[in-house]
Design a protein that fits this description.
Elements lengths: L1 H10 L3 H74 L2 H5 L1 H10 L11 H9 L8 H17 L3 H15 L5 H10 L8 H5 L6 H13 L1 H40 L2
Helix pairs in contact: 2-4, 2-5, 2-11, 6-11, 7-11
Length: 259
């Protein structure tokens, strides 16, 4: 209908009307386009808010796991130092017999939490990272998750250190002592550390026999400094993770509260 009317005015050379009708069409199209962009901008702003809250939830869930990893690394470093002290003074093992038996195994354990990164991966894979308008947030998120990815290359080395320690420490404890730990203290953490220290593994003579087997295993004794270094590296890595997590979380919360 519009084209027929426009053609009629053109034939009549009624140029003023032609211009008016064209302007009406152009203005109508521009208004429709702007309205569409307005609704799209509102939708993107809402989606950005959803992503921000999801990222906050992910990192808030990561932080307790990272704090636990730091505590475990400290505890295992202490276990390594306990073994080193027992080598120098066997009487220490008599004072902390269960801790000594646990240390022979768990001083080599490592723990690296798996970060909750589904939201970050979603933002990257869908191209929705553009929705996050604050550049500081983007930078801190990339710092946090990129550092975690960079540490994956060291996991095989950590596993090899653990396995090597198991091999060196094999035979230091008696079968009876191993069964005692398997049944009662298969995995020790900060939450049950005091209970372990106060428990009694039995025959003191067997404890001292284990001490002698440790002291006579020179390869294992020499290895303890390497074990201590690994736990210190774990502490450093996890503390860096915590710092990056808190920096990203602060940036996310400040941005969210400003909206």
């Amino acid at each position: 209908m519009f084209l027929k009317s426009l053609a009629g005015h053109i034939r009549k050379q009624d140029w003023f009307i032609v211009i008016i009708e064209l302007l009406v069409v152009v203005v109508g199209l521009m208004m429709a386009f702007q309205l569409d962009r307005w609704w799209e901008a509102i939708g993107e702003k809402k989606l950005e808010g959803v992503y921000i809250q999801r990222l906050i939830g992910d990192i808030e869930s990561d932080i307790p796991e990272l704090e636990n990893a730091i505590q475990l690394a400290y505890m295992r470093k202490d276990y390594t130092e306990l073994l080193m002290a027992v080598v120098e003074d066997p009487e220490i093992a008599a004072q902390q017999p269960t801790s000594f038996l646990v240390a022979l195994d768990q001083a080599s354990f490592t723990y690296s939490p798996v970060l909750r990164k589904a939201t970050f991966d979603d933002l990257r894979s869908t191209g929705n990272m553009r929705l996050i308008r604050d550049q500081d947030i983007k930078t801190r998120l990339h710092d946090y998750y990129r550092f975690d990815e960079s540490q994956l290359q060291y996991r095989p080395l950590q596993f090899s250190v653990e396995f090597h320690h198991f091999k060196l420490a094999s035979g230091v404890r008696s079968n009876k002592q191993v069964r005692f730990l398997q049944d009662k203290w298969l995995l020790v953490g900060p939450d049950n550390l005091e209970e372990v220290q106060n428990s009694d593994p039995g025959d003191p003579g067997e404890i001292m026999a284990a001490v002698e087997r440790l002291r006579n295993n020179q390869e294992l004794v020499s290895w303890l400094t390497q074990l201590r270094e690994m736990q210190m590296e774990q502490m450093l890595v996890h503390n860096t993770r915590i710092e990056l997590a808190n920096a990203a979380l602060d940036s996310l919360k400040n941005y969210s509260e400003s909206k």
